[in-house]
Amino acid sequence: MVRLTLDLIAKNSNLKSRKEETTSQYLKKITHINFSDRNIDAIDNLSLCKNLSVLYLYDNRISQITNLNFATNLTHLYLQNNYISCIENLRSLKKLEKLYLGGNYIAVIEGLEGLEGLRELHVESQRLPLGEKLLFDPRTLHSLAKSLYILNISNNNIDDIRDLEILENLNQLIAVDNQLLHVKLPKGC
Protein backbone atom coordinates (compact mmCIF):
# COMPACT_ATOMS: atom_id res chain seq x y z
CA MET A 1 0.00 0.00 0.00
CA VAL A 2 1.37 3.34 -1.06
CA ARG A 3 -0.14 6.64 0.00
CA LEU A 4 0.62 9.82 -1.90
CA THR A 5 1.97 12.05 0.87
CA LEU A 6 3.82 15.35 1.07
CA ASP A 7 6.94 13.42 2.15
CA LEU A 8 6.73 11.19 -0.91
CA ILE A 9 6.33 14.20 -3.20
CA ALA A 10 9.27 16.02 -1.61
CA LYS A 11 11.55 12.97 -1.78
CA ASN A 12 10.73 12.12 -5.39
CA SER A 13 10.65 15.58 -6.86
CA ASN A 14 12.94 16.17 -9.81
CA LEU A 15 12.97 19.90 -9.12
CA LYS A 16 15.67 20.87 -6.70
CA SER A 17 14.71 23.49 -4.18
CA ARG A 18 17.06 26.35 -3.48
CA LYS A 19 19.30 25.90 -0.44
CA GLU A 20 17.57 28.65 1.53
CA GLU A 21 14.12 27.23 0.73
CA THR A 22 12.35 24.95 3.20
CA THR A 23 10.47 21.84 2.07
CA SER A 24 7.24 23.59 3.01
CA GLN A 25 8.06 26.62 0.83
CA TYR A 26 9.01 24.31 -2.01
CA LEU A 27 5.76 22.30 -1.78
CA LYS A 28 3.71 25.51 -1.84
CA LYS A 29 5.21 26.39 -5.24
CA ILE A 30 4.68 23.03 -7.01
CA THR A 31 2.26 23.26 -9.95
CA HIS A 32 2.56 19.74 -11.44
CA ILE A 33 2.70 16.38 -9.66
CA ASN A 34 3.23 13.15 -11.59
CA PHE A 35 2.87 9.90 -9.65
CA SER A 36 1.53 7.68 -12.41
CA ASP A 37 2.09 3.94 -12.29
CA ARG A 38 3.47 3.99 -8.72
CA ASN A 39 1.00 1.64 -6.97
CA ILE A 40 -0.60 4.62 -5.22
CA ASP A 41 -3.80 3.47 -3.49
CA ALA A 42 -4.72 6.60 -1.50
CA ILE A 43 -4.24 10.36 -1.61
CA ASP A 44 -3.13 11.88 1.68
CA ASN A 45 -3.58 15.50 2.80
CA LEU A 46 -1.62 17.53 0.24
CA SER A 47 -2.98 20.92 1.29
CA LEU A 48 0.49 22.52 1.32
CA CYS A 49 0.53 22.22 -2.50
CA LYS A 50 -1.66 25.31 -2.92
CA ASN A 51 -0.52 26.08 -6.49
CA LEU A 52 -1.11 22.60 -7.87
CA SER A 53 -2.66 22.86 -11.33
CA VAL A 54 -1.98 19.44 -12.91
CA LEU A 55 -2.12 16.09 -11.09
CA TYR A 56 -1.16 12.85 -12.84
CA LEU A 57 -2.29 9.75 -10.92
CA TYR A 58 -3.21 7.38 -13.76
CA ASP A 59 -2.33 3.66 -13.74
CA ASN A 60 -2.48 3.30 -9.96
CA ARG A 61 -4.69 1.52 -7.41
CA ILE A 62 -6.80 4.45 -6.19
CA SER A 63 -10.35 3.40 -5.28
CA GLN A 64 -11.62 6.68 -3.83
CA ILE A 65 -11.11 10.32 -4.80
CA THR A 66 -10.20 12.06 -1.53
CA ASN A 67 -8.25 14.97 -0.08
CA LEU A 68 -8.37 17.21 -3.15
CA ASN A 69 -10.53 19.95 -1.62
CA PHE A 70 -7.46 22.16 -1.20
CA ALA A 71 -6.65 22.04 -4.94
CA THR A 72 -8.65 25.10 -5.97
CA ASN A 73 -6.14 25.88 -8.76
CA LEU A 74 -6.30 22.38 -10.29
CA THR A 75 -7.09 22.52 -14.02
CA HIS A 76 -6.16 18.97 -15.15
CA LEU A 77 -6.79 15.74 -13.23
CA TYR A 78 -5.63 12.40 -14.63
CA LEU A 79 -7.12 9.40 -12.78
CA GLN A 80 -7.56 6.87 -15.58
CA ASN A 81 -6.94 3.16 -15.00
CA ASN A 82 -7.52 3.04 -11.27
CA TYR A 83 -10.21 1.33 -9.16
CA ILE A 84 -12.59 4.28 -8.80
CA SER A 85 -16.29 3.37 -8.75
CA CYS A 86 -17.78 6.71 -7.67
CA ILE A 87 -17.04 10.27 -8.80
CA GLU A 88 -16.93 12.24 -5.57
CA ASN A 89 -15.22 15.03 -3.65
CA LEU A 90 -14.52 17.21 -6.68
CA ARG A 91 -16.94 20.11 -6.08
CA SER A 92 -14.29 22.48 -4.75
CA LEU A 93 -12.25 22.16 -7.96
CA LYS A 94 -13.87 25.20 -9.59
CA LYS A 95 -11.02 25.71 -12.10
CA LEU A 96 -10.97 22.09 -13.30
CA GLU A 97 -11.01 22.03 -17.12
CA LYS A 98 -10.03 18.47 -18.00
CA LEU A 99 -10.97 15.31 -16.11
CA TYR A 100 -9.68 11.88 -17.17
CA LEU A 101 -11.45 8.91 -15.55
CA GLY A 102 -11.29 6.25 -18.29
CA GLY A 103 -10.67 2.62 -17.38
CA ASN A 104 -12.20 2.68 -13.90
CA TYR A 105 -15.34 1.04 -12.43
CA ILE A 106 -17.72 4.00 -12.72
CA ALA A 107 -21.32 3.03 -13.60
CA VAL A 108 -22.93 6.49 -13.23
CA ILE A 109 -21.51 9.84 -14.28
CA GLU A 110 -22.48 11.99 -11.32
CA GLY A 111 -20.99 14.29 -8.69
CA LEU A 112 -19.74 16.90 -11.13
CA GLU A 113 -22.23 19.60 -10.18
CA GLY A 114 -20.58 22.95 -9.64
CA LEU A 115 -17.72 22.32 -12.08
CA GLU A 116 -18.83 25.03 -14.50
CA GLY A 117 -15.36 25.26 -16.06
CA LEU A 118 -15.11 21.58 -17.03
CA ARG A 119 -14.46 21.51 -20.77
CA GLU A 120 -13.33 17.90 -21.28
CA LEU A 121 -14.59 14.71 -19.66
CA HIS A 122 -13.04 11.36 -20.55
CA VAL A 123 -14.88 8.33 -19.11
CA GLU A 124 -14.16 5.74 -21.79
CA SER A 125 -13.81 1.99 -21.22
CA GLN A 126 -15.29 1.66 -17.75
CA ARG A 127 -14.95 -1.84 -16.35
CA LEU A 128 -18.67 -2.48 -15.94
CA PRO A 129 -20.40 -5.73 -14.97
CA LEU A 130 -21.50 -7.80 -17.94
CA GLY A 131 -24.66 -6.35 -19.49
CA GLU A 132 -24.40 -3.00 -17.66
CA LYS A 133 -24.05 0.34 -19.43
CA LEU A 134 -22.70 3.72 -18.40
CA LEU A 135 -25.45 6.04 -17.15
CA PHE A 136 -25.63 9.83 -16.71
CA ASP A 137 -27.15 11.64 -13.73
CA PRO A 138 -29.41 14.43 -15.09
CA ARG A 139 -28.14 16.90 -12.44
CA THR A 140 -24.57 16.43 -13.63
CA LEU A 141 -25.54 16.80 -17.29
CA HIS A 142 -27.48 19.97 -16.48
CA SER A 143 -24.50 21.37 -14.59
CA LEU A 144 -22.17 20.68 -17.53
CA ALA A 145 -24.63 21.84 -20.20
CA LYS A 146 -22.81 25.07 -21.04
CA SER A 147 -19.18 24.20 -20.31
CA LEU A 148 -18.51 20.74 -21.79
CA TYR A 149 -16.89 20.77 -25.26
CA ILE A 150 -15.37 17.27 -25.42
CA LEU A 151 -16.90 14.06 -24.09
CA ASN A 152 -15.36 10.60 -24.52
CA ILE A 153 -17.80 7.79 -23.67
CA SER A 154 -16.32 5.09 -25.90
CA ASN A 155 -16.61 1.40 -25.08
CA ASN A 156 -19.27 1.66 -22.36
CA ASN A 157 -22.19 -0.39 -23.73
CA ILE A 158 -24.24 2.80 -24.24
CA ASP A 159 -27.31 2.27 -26.41
CA ASP A 160 -28.85 5.76 -26.33
CA ILE A 161 -27.31 9.23 -26.26
CA ARG A 162 -30.49 11.33 -26.25
CA ASP A 163 -29.75 12.44 -22.67
CA LEU A 164 -26.67 14.24 -24.00
CA GLU A 165 -28.79 16.67 -26.05
CA ILE A 166 -28.68 19.05 -23.09
CA LEU A 167 -24.93 19.59 -23.68
CA GLU A 168 -25.38 22.67 -25.84
CA ASN A 169 -21.68 23.45 -26.48
CA LEU A 170 -20.49 19.90 -27.08
CA ASN A 171 -18.47 19.87 -30.29
CA GLN A 172 -16.63 16.56 -29.97
CA LEU A 173 -18.40 13.39 -28.89
CA ILE A 174 -16.28 10.27 -28.96
CA ALA A 175 -18.62 7.27 -28.65
CA VAL A 176 -17.02 4.39 -30.56
CA ASP A 177 -17.55 0.76 -29.54
CA ASN A 178 -20.97 1.21 -27.94
CA GLN A 179 -24.41 -0.29 -28.69
CA LEU A 180 -25.98 2.79 -30.28
CA LEU A 181 -29.21 2.06 -32.15
CA HIS A 182 -30.57 5.57 -32.77
CA VAL A 183 -27.99 8.26 -33.35
CA LYS A 184 -29.11 11.84 -33.23
CA LEU A 185 -26.05 13.85 -32.34
CA PRO A 186 -26.20 16.68 -29.81
CA LYS A 187 -26.48 20.14 -31.42
CA GLY A 188 -22.82 21.13 -31.66
CA CYS A 189 -21.39 17.86 -32.95
Automatic annotation (TrEMBL):
SMART domains: LRR_SD22 (SM00365)
Stored Gene3D superfamilies: Ribonuclease Inhibitor
Protein name, entry field: Protein phosphatase 1 regulatory subunit 42
InterPro entries: Leu-rich_rpt, Leu-rich_rpt_4, LRR_dom_sf, SDS22/Internalin_LRR
Domain of life of the native organism: Eukaryota
Keyword Chloroplast carried by entry: no
SUPFAM superfamilies named in the record: L domain-like (SSF52058)
Keywords: Leucine-rich repeat, Repeat
